[in-house]
Specification:
Elements: E1 4-5, E2 8-11, H1 15-26, E3 31-34, H2 39-43, E4 50-51, H3 53-61, H4 66-71, E5 73-75, E6 77-82, E7 85-90, H5 91-94, E8 100-102, H6 105-118, E9 122-124, E10 128-133, E11 141-146, E12 149-154, E13 157-160, E14 178-193, E15 203-206, E16 212-218, E17 221-229, H7 239-248, H8 252-257, E18 263-277, E19 280-281, E20 284-286, E21 292-293, H9 301-322, H10 326-353, H11 361-376, H12 378-389
Parallel strand pairs: 1-12, 2-3, 2-13, 3-9, 6-15, 13-20
Antiparallel strand pairs: 4-8, 5-8, 6-7, 10-11, 11-12, 14-17, 14-18, 15-16, 16-17, 18-21, 19-20
Bound molecules: adenosine-5-diphosphoribose and P-hydroxybenzoic acid (PHB).
């Protein structure tokens, strides 16, 4: 079987890989996306749903913004619940009018797949045993198996958008790759329910029993999370126990207004901060979860993937349109500079709002002082707001 020829091979059919393939295609740059799972498996993943304005603009630039703009909710603020009080962080007034868009990652991925189909984009599903080759050569190539038959594609560049457990990062020699990691001793038990959201803005709760979050997907679909020990199993949490614990962690009036119902999805996500450096090796470029993971507290996971794609897209454009490698040569450094700022913000917000199992009395007092400072300082709220809406690209 002769090798497929293309300009960019993208490994991973998640939001990062699809968004890049779509943006490149609109500029006449060819790509192939290789995805290990079926499309329904990829679409079945329940992930976060707060989009920074940078990501929203990128979706529009990719021609994928219509449903997002029609069905997504623009949020100009969110609340932090502490000691029975709701404290609102006014994003718009603290950032000169910037907001976020609440629109589920599942919907983002659905829109990207539809856009790829509409343009006849090549997305190969159930691609098994993907292997990367000749990463330092002018024409690297990728091999995989489809229904047991070996396949090969040759290209100019390979993009590793295959997530944390993908093959791409592992293809970078150990003496080149440096990994930074912090694992938190707790996880998030998340429930999706076909109930009206308890609030039309997100509520992050800091409570001595642990963190909680009230989020939403639509006026009839809610997403709630509670902090649980990382040793817990979702199957050990009945819906009844979940709702009861969530209510304990919310201000009394919010708990009283909470509509409960059967969970249609329930899972525990571990919390981790992770960064791999560099994000480039020869003609391989890492993007999204393949290179970095943030704890979900700051809603930065998907948004960081988008900023990687922004830098990579413009680097590839500069290469194919102007023949300049400047953007690609600067990619790793530029992307990592923004990654580390988002890692810092996500780590800070996680420490601010979670109770640490081995936290001392002193830790608790310091955490309360940090919250009191935040609620009483314009400067502190402006800093939180500018990070939450998304730092400039
Ligand atoms: N070969 C081919 N595909 C692979 C391989 C492989 N060896 N390993 C993983 N994949 C696929 C996965 O099945 C997945 O669909 O790569 C895709 C990676 O997608 P994501 O994990 O969603 O990563 P990314 O596109 O970077 O999106 C980041 O996803 O996890 C959330 O919080 C994260 O919101 C962030 C976003
Ligand atoms: C979500 O809606 O799933 C969500 C929202 C905000 C976060 C994390 C997750 O910080």
């Amino acid at each position: 079987m002769s090798a497929l020829q293309t300009q960019v091979v993208i490994i991973g059919g998640g939001p990062s890989g699809l968004l890049l393939s779509q943006l490149l295609h609109r500029k006449g740059i060819s790509s192939i996306v290789l995805e290990r799972q079926t499309r329904s498996h990829v679409m079945g993943r329940i992930r976060a749903g707060v989009l920074e304005h940078g990501f929203v603009n990128l979706m529009r630039e990719a021609g994928c913004g219509r449903r997002m703009d029609r069905e997504g909710e623009v949020h100009a603020g969110f609340c932090i619940a502490h000691q029975g009080q709701l404290n609102r962080i006014d994003l718009a007034s603290r950032t000169g009018g910037e907001t976020v868009m609440v629109y589920g990652q599942t919907e983002v991925t659905r829109d990207l797949y539809q856009a790829r189909d509409a343009m006849g984009g090549v997305v190969i599903h159930t691609a098994q045993n993907v292997q990367l080759h000749a990463l330092n050569d002018a024409r690297p190539f990728v091999t995989w198996e489809l229904d047991g038959v070996s396949q090969r594609a040759e290209c100019d560049f390979i993009v590793g958008a295959d997530g944390f457990h993908g093959v791409s990062r592992k293809s970078i020699p150990a003496d080149v790759l440096k990994e930074y990691e912090k694992i938190y001793p707790f996880g998030w038990l998340g429930v999706l329910s076909e109930t009206a959201p308890v609030s039309d803005e997100l509520i992050y709760a800091r409570h001595e029993r642990g963190f909680a979050l009230c989020s939403l997907r639509s006026p009839v679909l809610s997403r709630y999370y509670i902090q649980v020990p990382s040793t817990d199993q979702a199957k050990d949490w009945s819906d009844k126990a979940f709702w009861a614990e969530l209510k304990r962690r919310l201000p009394a009036d919010v708990a009283a207004a909470l509509q409960t119902g059967p969970s249609i999805e329930k899972s525990i996500a571990p919390l981790r901060s992770f960064v791999a450096e560099p994000m480039r090796y020869g003609n391989l470029f890492l993007a999204g979860d393949a290179a970095h993971i943030v704890p979900p507290t700051g809603a930065k996971g998907l948004n960081l993937a988008a900023s990687d794609i922004h830098y990579l897209y413009h680097g590839l454009l500069e290469y194919y349109v102007k023949g300049s490698c400047a953007g690609l040569d600067a990619y790793s450094e530029k992307a990592l500079a923004r990654v580390w700022k988002a890692e810092r913000f996500s780590w800070w917000m996680t420490n601010l709002l979670h109770s640490s199992p081995d936290g001392s009395e002193t830790d608790l007092r310091l955490q309360s002082a940090e919250l009191d400072y935040l609620f009483s300082s314009d400067a502190a709220q402006a800093s939180m707001a500018e990070n939450y809406v998304g730092l400039p690209y």
